[in-house]
Amino acid sequence: MTAQTEAVLSAQQDVIQSTDPQIAELIRLEQQRQDQTLELIASENHTSPAVMAATGSCLTNKYCEGYPGKRYYSGCDYYDDVERLAIQRVTKLFNCTFANVQPHSGANANNAVFFALLEPGDTFASIVLSEGGHLTHGSPVNLTGKWFKPVHYPLIYDESAPNFGHIDYDAVRATCLEHKPKMLICGYSAYPRIIDFPKFREIADECGAILMADIAHIAGLIVADAHPSPFPHCHVVTTTTHKTLRGPRGGLILTNDQDIAKKIDKAVFPGTQGGPLMHAIAGKAVAFGEALKPDFADYGKQIVKNAAALAKALMDHGYSLTSNGTENHLMVIDLRKTSADLTGKAAALWLEQSGIIVNKNTVPKDERSPFQTSGIRLGTPALTTRGLKEPDMPPVADLMHRAIASNGDQDLINKIREDVQALCQRFPMPH
Ligand code: DSN
């Protein structure tokens, strides 16, 4: 940990320690966990002390329902400026015209889009959760699945096809022409390939659908020019701010369309949310400022280079990846190909005990439930924040392989954990 990080954390700790030692201790333990483990969950990252400080500031004290210049409470002048700065920075970052920075999360952002642009019962098209989509893209347990009508388009499942595991764009087109969805969603949670936004727009235009991109996973890559932009192709774009974008936990909605922007603002407040979390919006503004700096482009490109190197090292160990590789920050190991009996749940547990944090994940055509799964998903955003580069990926893959091959043997796992901690010490939190 650098001196700056240590100073920020210890100042926070001192304040909490004096009033609530129990919580202070839990925060200390969590910081230690983050320091001593390799974070490979594709949707997580280590945000900066400045973002954490803004998120922990006095801005948590105020109600600011409404938008800058149009609030329902007095005393919002500085909050107006914070929100305006966040909007100004993020529209510059994504080269678009309108932004709503108030969604508390990516799920809230998606709910607001549905509320703004669809009527209950309307049909929309997306990828199913178990094949890389998201809960809010029509899962039967989510309001998008209960109150709207999802139709799901497929991937290419033929393992001998050159684009195995990629989106089947012909099938997207056929699905949309058949069902005439009011909205077509692209953007996913476990899809390791580049998204062809112009192609999606062509299909959306052909069937008269609104095109929505959920770029929660790849937002930071887009900013870094390490993945094509959804603009100007998509009508509306949602994202989280805490994944590759490396900000505080939160959501965001972007568009170039003035009518859509008006509907979105109403759908966020008063449609689906109350008072905005202004401390989180300040944290978002700080993160957007960081992402506007030139070194963020290097960071985003390095994430992708690291993912490619990690994918190669894992495949060299004999692991099979969905779509046979990756072009972005994440990959999904299909464990069925190497060990028919091994579940994602067991592999994730042995990895966690070894100090390597991943999540169990379903794979396309998975026979197992989401509680067991046949895959694990991993990504490189957090390791890249810690400064790991391509030559560091084979050692990470070696540690992963040892943990999976340990078969849960605790003596082997204890040794791997020591080696993981040694690697972590070489790459302290960089801020
Ligand atoms: N839970 C997030 C992820 O891990 O991808 C998506 O919301």
Task: Explain what the structure shows.
- The protein has 431 residues and is of the alpha/beta class.
- The protein has 2 domains: 60-291, Type I PLP-dependent aspartate aminotransferase-like (Major domain) (Aspartate Aminotransferase, domain 2, 3-Layer(aba) Sandwich); 299-426, Alpha-Beta Complex (Aspartate Aminotransferase, domain 1).
- 46% of the residues lie in helices and 12% in strands.
- Strands 4-10-9-8-7-5-6 form a 7-stranded mixed beta sheet, with helices on both faces. It has a 3-stranded antiparallel beta sheet with strand order 11-14-13.
- Helix 9 links the parallel strand 8 (210-214) and strand 9 (236-240).
- Helix 4 (77-94) runs parallel beside helix 11, helix 5 crosses helix 10 and helix 12 (294-316) packs across helix 15 (393-405).
- The N and C termini lie close together (8 Å).
- The site of D-serine has 4 residues, from loops.
Primary descriptors:
431 residues, alpha/beta, Aspartate Aminotransferase, domain 2, Aspartate Aminotransferase, domain 1, 2 domains, 16 helices, 46% helix, binds D-serine
